[in-house]
Amino acid sequence: MARPVRVRPLSADEDAALLQIVRSASRQETIRVRRAVMVRASAHGVKPPVIARLLDADPDTVRDVIHAFNADGLAALDPHWGPGCPRRITAEDEAYIVRVATRRPRVVRRPFTHWSLRKLADYLADNGVRVVVIGRERLRQLLHAHGISFPAHQDLEGVDRSGRGRQAGPDRGSARALA
């Protein structure tokens, strides 16, 4: 049978640093604080399955944190996130989206007088020039970053169609009741 996983003996500086991390916990440091609690609990003789139950964690995660702390010290408490998923919208796609959004729909041969997020996303996903698949919320964020918005109500069609200076709101088209 394998030996129980334990944290190596802590130096006074390490123990003080761990205690400081736990006491000065903030919401942004939740993972770091949980890892510090795991290490301190193990240093005081608590076994990994008990620590896991107290913190609502997986016992294997607790063991991994203990092994990492034994190998790397306090540096093991900081999470090492990956870069995330690759960006699907390129800078050229973004420029194309802005170019289309600032034109009238009739210019690109669409049978309506103004864009909505839904109409623009549908056009971008199915056109002969450049296909850009983008969700409505990401499209709204991108347009907002460029200072572009559409009228929230169709009655505002003739009022200041420059689209500058107002925030594009979330798409509420799906909330309409069908008649």
Concise synopsis of the structure shown:
The protein is mainly alpha-helical.
How does this structure look, described?
The protein has 179 residues and is an all-alpha fold. The protein has two domains: 12-77; 91-171, no CATH class. 44% of the residues lie in helices and 0% in strands. It is built from seven helices and no strands. It has helices at residues 12-23, 30-43, 48-55, 59-72, 91-101, 117-125, 136-145. Helix 2 packs antiparallel against helix 3 and helix 2 (30-43) crosses helix 4 (59-72). It is rod-shaped. The model is unreliable at 173-179 (pLDDT under 50).
The number of E-state strands comes to: 0
How many DSSP H or I helices? 7
User: Which structural category fits the helices and strands?
Assistant: mainly alpha
For the record, the count of structural domains works out to 2
Work out the strand percent.
under 5%
Overall pLDDT level: 83
Shape: rod-shaped
Percent of residues in helices comes to 40-55%
Measured on Cα atoms, how large is the radius of gyration? 27 Å
Biggest sheet overview: none
- Low-confidence residue ranges: 173-179
Summarize the helix and strand pattern as letters.
HHHHHHH
How many angstroms does the end-to-end distance come to? 69 Å
What is the element layout, followed by pairings?
Layout: H1 12-23, H2 30-43, H3 48-55, H4 59-72, H5 91-101, H6 117-125, H7 136-145
Helix pairs in contact: 1-2, 2-3, 2-4, 3-4
